[in-house]
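Recap quiz, item 2
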Amino acid sequence: MSNTEDHKIIEGIATGNKLVITAFYKKNLPYIRHYILQNSGNEEDVEDVFQDAMVFIYQKLKTDSLELQSSLRTYFYGVCKNIWRNRLRKIKKLVITEDLQTDAESIPPKIIEDIEHKEREHIYRKHFLNLSGTCREVLSLLFQGNSMKEIARITGYSEGYTRKKKFECKQSLIEMIENDPFYHELQLNSEKD
Amino acid sequence: MERTPEIFEKIEGYLANTLSQEDLVAFEKEMANSIELQQEVEKHRAIHETLGDKDILNFKEQLGEISIDIKEEKKITSSFIPSSSWKIAASIIVLLGIGSLIWRTTTSRNQTQNLYSSYYKPLPVNDMVRGSFDTITEVKSIIKHYINGSYDSVVLALEKHPKLAEQQQLQLYLGNSYLNLNEEQKAASQFKEIKKKGKYYEIAQWYLSLTYLKLNKPKKATSILKEIVGYDGVYKKQASNLLKALAK
């Protein structure tokens, strides 16, 4: 892949260009699917890893900290593989073999640390997006720093209903997160550290 | 710790820095005496911080939509079986003179893609003569990547490999890697590099025919498959079966 092509894709991802992102998705998903399915994963894992790696790159672009020492595709595959290895390791399915460790798509240790650090964030986002539209609306406004009064005004709900809904939605979100087996493993691992 | 609306209100007030001085002191005292409450506050803090970034959430949501679109598109392509209304529509188009062309192109593409999926298996490493590799660490590492499905790594290592032209096994690995990375044109060129004199010619021809199948060029694939049948080697049976399937 040429630098010009990479540049176009990077620009497309940064600006949320649907055509560019769709083309990138279609082109690279089969490779990631093959890798994850070959290494104890399922179709849901494939989508999760692929999207979380895209978000990782998007975050790097937003903070202007994407440093490519290889092609974008190589970097992206490296991120996907590291995310997946991390997850396998956490759920103890991975017997770390030399085969999985030695990889030309390896990425700098700092990035591997970043990937690990972002794991909780991926879980939060995944479950948040599984909430109902009303819950997402109310909680989004709360997370952006709005008071109950402001949320009630913006949504048109009564303040009492807004408070009730906010509590139910947030409680349900926390429970979903806590019931995620991977979150549980992250907690256990951080307690050990 | 039981979660109640009151506790949530206090935590949110604490995080937003909107508690009165009196409430703040009381809450901090409560936290100091309860590890559970401290953990709960940290949980809320992390969730607020992560999900407060609307931009990233929107991007993640967009990815979910794109994924659904791609799956839908795939479903439509793979289940292209005409319902009665489709038959009516198709008949009208046929009458107009262009329908049959569209129909044939689409079904032919589906057929070739399905056949490719059924017949393609990456060239197994066991099939290769491994003796010459065992002393070369670099090549062993390439094989590991190939076995792991790290095709991008194989391409990176082999594209400019100085011994590529001499090692037909490596050329086959590279061709297979291209195929798995959806770079069919490069795969075809790679398989064509393996000339008739070599003992890997038949293998290369088999994968070249599958490459053409993937490219939806059944005529080219058929011509190579006939040659493989005539070659009377290990791929004769598979080539013959694939030819029959293509003729249907």
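Residues 1-118 of chain A form one domain.
Chain A touches chain B through 55 residues (CB under 8 Å).
End of item.
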